[in-house]
Every structure is written in C-alpha cells, then in structure tokens.
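Cross-posting from the chemistry board since nobody answered there.

I work mostly on the small-molecule side, so proteins are not my area. We synthesized flavin-adenine dinucleotide and want a rough idea of how it might sit in this target. Sequence and SMILES are below. Is it possible to get a predicted 3D structure of the two together?
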Amino acid sequence: MKQQNILIIGGGASGIVAAIIARRHKANVTILERNSKIGKKILATGNGRCNFTNANTTKNDYNHPEFVSKAIDVFGPKMTMDFFESLGIAPKIEDLGKTYPLSEQASSILDVLVYEINRIGVNVVTDAYVKSIKKTNNGFTVQLENGERYDADKVIISTGGKAMPSSGSDGFGYKLAEQLGHHATKVFPALVKLKLDSPYLKQLDGVKIPGRVQLMHRNQMLQEEEGDVLFTKTGISGPTILQISRKANTLLAEKQEIWIKVILVNLLTRADVEKRLSLSASRPVDFSLVGLIHKKIIPSLLKEAGIKDHSILVSQLSPKEKNKLLQLLFDWRFLVMESHGFEDAQVTAGGIDINEIKSDTLESKLVKGLYFTGEIIDIDGLCGGYNLQWAWSSGYLAGKSASN
Ligand SMILES: Cc1cc2nc3c(=O)[nH]c(=O)nc-3n(C[C@H](O)[C@H](O)[C@H](O)COP(=O)(O)OP(=O)(O)OC[C@H]3O[C@@H](n4cnc5c(N)ncnc54)[C@H](O)[C@@H]3O)c2cc1C
C-alpha cells in the first residue's frame, strides 16, 4: 500500500492524536501549528489538571449521538485511558467519572503526547498559520501566511472552533473548510458563564455555594443541575451553570426570556426551615439565617424579601415578609441577559455540518481525502471530560482512516 502523506492543520488535542495514530499506521505526517508550540489549550484544561476523559462517556453525552457513536465505539474512554497509560499516564477517576492524570497536571498529558510525537517521527512545523487550502489533481496544496506551501495526499483539519481564541482556535478553520465547499452551522459559546440582570451582583461577587440551579422558561424548568454555584460581578458561574449555558444560549438566540432559579437551601425542606425560623423567633432575622446560608448572601436576600430592618426579630416579621423570605430560600430567580463570549467559553457549539462528514471515517462527503477532527465539527459535549474525549476519539478515527 502507498505511504500516505498527511498534513494536519492544527496541533491541538485532536490533531496530535490524529498525527500519532496516522504515523503508527505508517503514514508520513506533518502537523502545521500556528503557535510556537503545539497543545497550548491542553494546558488550560480542567483548571490546569486536565479532565482528559470521563469514564462513563457514551454517545448520548453529545449533541449528535448517532454521529459520534462510531468514534466513541472505536476509541472510547477505556481505550483513551489505555492509550495514555501506555504513554505513562496513571489515571485518577473522581466523582461522576471525571478522569485526570494522577499527577493532577495538565502538562503531564501534553508532555507524553509531545514525547510520542518526537519518538515516532511526526514532523511538527510551528509558527505555521494556514491561510488557504486547495484541492489538486493528486491531493491538496496548503499555503501558510508567510507564503510557504505544503503538498499532501490527505489533509486533516483539526483547527478547533472559536472557544478561547488566545489558545490559537480563532475560528479560521471554518474559512478553510469553506474554501473547499463546506458549511458551518451557527456557532455560539457553550460551557460559559452567564450574565444576569440583578442589583445584588456587587455584594454577591465571589460567593460560592453548594446548591441547585434550574433553567426556567415560561415558568417551566428546562434543566436542573446540582453542585457548586458561583456568583461573579457580572452574573453566575460554576459547573452547574456551565452545564446549563448551552441550552440558555440556544433560547437567548431565539430571543426567549430565561431565568436562573437558585435553590439556596438544597438539603432541607421548607418545613425544616420554617421550624428553624420559629426556634429563632427571638433572634434578629439576619442572625437567624447564619448557619443556613452563606453569610455574604444574607443582606441581599433580605433586601429582595422586602425586609428593610435586617436586625428585626424573626417574631416581628409580618406573615408576608416571612413567607417571601422562605420562598426565596428555595426559589430565587435571576433574569439572564446573555452569556460571556468565546474568550471565556470552554467549547464551541455548532461547527462544520455533520451531514457533510462521514461518521464512520470522518472523511468529508464533499472532498475525497479531506478529514475533520475535534471541535471544528458541530459536536460538543457536557462539562466533565467529554469534549477532550471527542477530540481523542475523532483524532483516532480520522488518523486511522486517513492513513489507509
Ligand atoms: C479553559 C478550558 C478548559 C477546558 N477544560 C476541559 C476539560 O477539563 N475536559 C474536557 O474534556 N475539555 C475541556 N475543554 C475543551 C477542550 O479543551 C477542547 O474541546 C479540545 O481542546 C478541542 O480540541 P481540538 O483539537 O478540536 O481544538 P484545539 O485544542 O482548540 O486545537 C486547535 C489547534 O489548531 C491551531 N490552529 C487553529 N487555526 C489554525 C490555522 N489556521 N493554522 C494552523 N494552526 C491553527 C490552534 O493554534 C490550536 O493549537 C476546555 C477548554 C477550555 C478553553
């Protein structure tokens, strides 16, 4: 069989794995990376710990389950852990299947990938910003910003989406794909903080609570997440909110009014809290809430409940005030204005239309010899290791298919 010359545009998570797998299948592989080093974004993942897979990953953790199923079948979380184990990474599986390197350093993941790239002889060209791509009779010609040209039998576009553009993924990959006739669906930030319309943000900024949040639309709960909720000076964040942000952004794009309902008291019932308040009848109302909710939230909560005098005794509250206070502890609503942008997003929702890509090889249906991996495709998953898993799975499948 003829040795394939493969160019991989983008040395991120998916491009690196595609390169390793194609090289292991005897292809001659070159990565073209615009940064001075490959894998910059990997270093930022998982708060520097790199949540590199989720042990429980299934196709249903993605927006297009049927499209991802082949890639997840051939290179799922178990294969990913084995792959990294063979490169020297001991996995550490935490709650809900989130998996990190035992070192808890994202740099370990990048170090072992770079070592393998060098060991097996993948060519890496850095400071190589690809600006154009053309189909030729025999394959492809790719041109860099500095005018240099590269020819190849096959090309894998692994440029990522638009999330965290400072890491290199500035969205130009979509333009490259369009040069060959491909189309991107509408892209928007996902796994991203939300901006709220609330007079209390200044006071609440920095408060982190273990709570429950619900995405509300027309008084109906659309999504519920339990875990850390973090208030910021512009709105709300934390893993719970990141999970909700995709659906929130979809509705915001349709100009729908959406609310975040925060359940401050997650582990007690309303009756429990009512009992506590009656036992605190002779205490000031602000003091009666200490030990129940985060202290920094109390003044804002009382204000929202319409209680002006924060040191009024619980027994002196009117039934209306007491009722409102109880209600807010279990249902405090905040109007969502918009989300933060791609700069703050962990992932891009939308991308190259899956109808233009063969799901069993990740080869383009429009251009023979062209492949896609990772986030540039209209695939995204929840927070928890699923997006890197897609990067590795798609990198494996495209690298293997392109080398044949
Ligand atoms: C802060 C943050 C934390 C995250 N944490 C996690 C986590 O813990 N777990 C998880 O599963 N996912 C996480 N993600 C998501 C995950 O990192 C991405 O989904 C994944 O890296 C996508 O891989 P990719 O190969 O498609 O693209 P990228 O990793 O974005 O790589 C694309 C590469 O292509 C290069 N490039 C782009 N255009 C060109 C061009 N024209 N010419 C040459 N090179 C080009 C870029 O410089 C970049 O190196 C996180 C993301 C962010 C931003």
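Reply from a structural biologist on the board:
Welcome over. Reading the output above for you: The mean pLDDT is 97. The radius of gyration is 25 Å. Happy to explain the token format if needed.
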